[in-house]
Design a protein that fits this description.
565 residues; alpha/beta; eight-stranded parallel β-sheet; three-stranded antiparallel β-sheet; 21 helices; disordered C terminus
């Protein structure tokens, strides 16, 4: 059922905000930062799934956000909300979005205009695909935006997308102005995303602003990013963990006085340690002073008739271009497409390395091999309702590749990494006072052949090739052949090792025989501290594989001493 829309929207003043994924494992933690520096910012803009129940389950800081939202207001910036793509969002998902936003008191919902997911499966790294800036892209984006708005009781705010490859004849600001004109929806101006378009197009940073309806902008985003060059072109990579470019601070100062309807400025400081985020927030606080302002009345769109999707904006073709399924030379803006591919392939590799750090290097360590994966039927099926995760898709592709091109070494490594997660199927008993036991994140494991040399080699080869790349500007991936050689000569004896769980993924650790035996025993029952040889105890504490039931005066000196190997 279409959501009833009120005769007028009233948008409160939010002021200066900090973005967050509401995870205790991320930095900065907004509420710790605000407690240490009261008044540093006014609200939290958080990203989470559309469903309130999913957000409660997945976001470890959700309960604190919920309990403090009366004093620290929030804006909901959802993930998995398509504002472009081959299919409209299911009505059930939009009803969940509206219920979520109303429950937390978010006065509007903002999102980048792009294709974020296919049938619920997000693109790796949440790297959405931007629409073409032409009539076809405008028509399909308008259909998406009006469809979403027709099921919301608060305004949908349209954010200009990040751009690397130029597609379509319009400037991004002209595209967004036209999208506003045909939907009646307010705008969110992301300064880094604008910078990405200007660099890719070879334009001044303020190009296009003169005719852009800045009076319709209700929120501004500012975040970190990296500028890199390819040939004669420069590209901006939207990476929030990077420093904020000085150009963006200057652009913010110039546009702020021209945004008459502005309600919020959000610093997307994901990945910045608290002390670093505080520096940027103090600078932004001078531009957005603390204090109340009158609410802003806005008229909703006069019509919420949702036009049909035309499909003429070719989303699947742009998906294939971005994942190197087709040659960049066959699509619009080959140089920009190559830059876009590089970024996406790097994110795919980084994501795979969390679960397949060894297999990925052996089977998809080069660009050519990685493209073979992203161009595969297994990868495409992931986004066509295959219902599996990226890690499962990679294992299926890897097994097929090894059937077609047998390699005993790579097969052994793949088997090892498929085995690793099973080490955590059994809970580890906690130690009592005076005992030593396993930490929750570690387990013992064993394998029929000894791959300890490969674990060592993967770490050292990565370090060596990376160091050389810094010196010569070229990552010589031919050096990975050393790993293939090592994988083909495993030790014949059984191998005992440690597995440490990271967030997410797993890490295989070589340990001494004495520690391996201790870990295996601790997997079943703790041991008295005094029964463990001091050098084994020191090694286990150093690697953070074991814990003491009573830490007073016992593990403190030992944890600081690195074991002698």
């Amino acid at each position: 059922m279409t959501q009833a829309v009120s005769d007028a929207w009233t948008l409160p003043w939010r002021g200066l905000g900090l973005s967050s994924n509401l995870s205790t494992s991320d930095v900065p933690q907004p509420y710790r930062l605000l407690d240490s520096a009261p008044g540093l910012f006014d609200f939290v803009e958080y990203s989470a799934p559309l469903s309130l129940d999913e957000a409660r389950t997945q976001a470890s800081l959700f309960s604190e956000m919920w309990s403090r939202r009366a004093d620290v207001p929030v804006l909901f910036h959802p993930v998995h909300l398509n504002l472009w793509g081959p299919e409209l969002e299911p009505v059930s998902a939009l009803e969940a979005l509206d219920a979520h936003a109303r429950a937390v008191g978010s006065p509007w919902v903002g999102n980048d205009v792009g294709w974020w997911h296919s049938r619920g499966q997000p693109f790796p790294g949440y790297l959405y695909i931007s629409p073409p800036f032409n009539e076809a892209g405008l028509a399909d984006c308008a259909a998406h935006a009006l469809h979403v708005q027709s099921h919301l009781s608060m305004p949908l705010v349209l954010e200009n997308p990040a751009v690397m490859a130029r597609r379509g004849q319009w400037h991004v600001l002209d595209f967004m102005a036209k999208l506003h004109a045909c939907t009646g929806l307010p705008l969110l101006l992301d300064l880094g995303h604008l910078f990405s378009h200007q660099l890719s197009s070879g334009l001044p940073l303020d190009a296009g602003l003169e005719g852009f309806p800045l009076e319709q902008v209700v929120e501004i985003h500012i975040a970190g990013g990296v500028v890199s060059r390819r040939g004669s072109r420069a590209f901006y990579v939207d990476d929030h963990s990077q420093p904020v470019r000085e150009e963006l601070f200057q652009l913010l100062e110039s546009v702020l006085p021209r945004c008459a309807s502005l309600r919020a400025v959000t610093f997307e400081g994901d990945g910045h340690p608290a002390e670093v985020a505080q520096l940027s927030l103090k600078r932004l606080r001078r531009l957005v002073p603390q204090g109340a302002r009158p609410p802003l009345p806005l008229r909703p769109p006069e019509s919420l008739v949702v036009p049909p999707l035309t499909g003429e904006s070719r989303p699947w073709e742009l998906f294939e271009a971005g994942h190197a399924v087709v040659s960049a030379e066959k699509v619009e803006d080959p140089e920009g497409t190559l830059a876009d591919q590089d970024f996406r392939l790097a994110v795919v590799a980084e994501t795979l390395d969390k679960d397949w750090p060894l297999s990925r290097l052996l089977l998809a360590g080069t660009r050519e091999q990685l493209v073979a994966f992203t161009a595969s039927r297994e990868y495409r099926n992931l986004f066509e309702g295959g219902g599996r995760s990226l890690t499962q898709v990679f294992s299926a592709w890897a097994m097929r590749r090894l059937r077609e091109q047998p390699d005993d070494g790579a097969s052994a490594v793949l088997s090892l990494e498929m085995l690793v997660p099973t080490a955590f199927m059994k809970a580890a008993p906690p130690p009592a006072p005076g005992q030593v036991g396993l930490v929750e994140e570690a387990r013992p494991a064993s394998f029929p052949v000894n791959l300890s040399e490969l674990v060592f080699a993967a770490r050292t080869v990565r370090r060596h090739l990376t160091a050389r790349a810094w010196a010569c500007g070229d990552l010589d991936l031919s050096g990975l052949e050393a790993l293939a050689q090592v994988a083909r000569r495993p030790g014949a004896e059984p191998w005992s090792f440690a597995v440490r769980r990271k967030a997410p993924g797993h890490e295989v650790l070589n340990v001494s025989r004495g520690l391996a035996e201790l870990l295996r025993e601790l997997g079943s029952r703790p041991r008295p501290v005094e029964s463990v040889p001091p050098e084994v105890l020191a090694e286990g504490l150093w690697h953070r594989l074991i814990r003491l039931g009573d830490t007073s005066g016992v593990d403190r000196p030992l944890a600081q001493a690195r074991p002698v190997r």
